[in-house]
Amino acid sequence: MSEMMALAGAPGPDEREPEQRVTPLELFFDLVFVFAITQVTALIAADSTWTRLLQGMAIFVVVWWAWCSYAWLGNTAASDDGLFRITLFAATAAMLLVAIAVPGAFGPDALAFGLAYAVVRALHVGAYAVLGRGDATLTLLVRHLAMSMVPAATLLVVAGVVDGTARTACWIAAIAIDLGGLYVVGAEGWRVQAGHLAERFGLIVIIALGESIVALGAGAEGHALDAGLIAGVVLGVTVACALWWAYFDVVALVAARRFERAEPGERIRIARDSYTYLHAPMVAGIILFALGVKKTLAHYGDPLEAVPAFGLCGGVALYLLAHVAFRLRNVHTLNRARLATALVLLALVPLATEVAALLALALVAALMVGLLTYEFVHFHAARERLRHALR
Predict the structure, then answer these.
(1) What is the DSSP letter of 106?
(2) How far apart are CA 185 and CA 141, in angstroms?
(3) What residues make up the domain containing 99?
(4) By Cβ atoms counted within 10 A, which residue in 105, 228, 336, 350 is the most buried?
């Protein structure tokens, strides 16, 4: 915690950029991602097998990468007017088609998914190309961006035409090209408004947490509101609140301050590593938890099947492990308490397939509340000084 305070108060560059806020148009655009995330959860819940889980996570990754691309675009455009407005309206329509096609992305709607996704990515690169007119550096960066975007999007279109092993290979190659391209080509040269990007990624975490609340309602739908169901809802909300607390109480504040005060080169690397890459497992963990809690409320008296059990316990573990990596990247210290809790949660996965789902959910809630209570008590004075300093 002392290292976090030191970094939070560290002096930054002499030249401070004017503060940029997330615009109402960007929030409007994010609404379609709410639906896309809901579709991914529903896809896995409809057939909770390991194959379907991998397919759902693959779809999440490509949807995540599209969302990140537009977060960076908005960061560069710094506007909700003109070309950027038209681009986001068009991308919203195309992304909605992507979300609608999610349930059949590996089946009958594979081609529709690939074509709609290609339009989303093409609009993004096209908007960047127009923004880069007269800016040689940005124009070069956009060309580098297209070197990974075009092949990846094309492979997903091809995946809609082929079937079986060939389709799987196309998806794997597309994800590898997209995720690896940013590291291979490099992120140097981009201009980053730290406050805007940190706020944008914080809001997507809120959206994902909203999906867990929706999953609670969906899991309870059609069942009598008896004592067991009420207990499940309360426990599920407790975990969702704990996930919110774990990120927004201190972590997000420190990370944003560290981001804002970093030198330009380091700021770009933080945007790439801490936000674009490391927020993905955070959001994926929340989606997996949403899957687990949805199945829990539907059959709270029975043991969970393997995939929902992994979602319930392993999803929260993945979320915490992403936090551990996030802190390690930004502050260069290891959060042992969160790492230990994540390992215990992973160890609970087999148990969740043997005991009542409600008990498994209670154990997850107890571990999260215990972790946050330990951090609140153990780091109380430092936490108060830190939050006061950041405010």
Answers:
(1) T
(2) 9
(3) 20-191
(4) 105
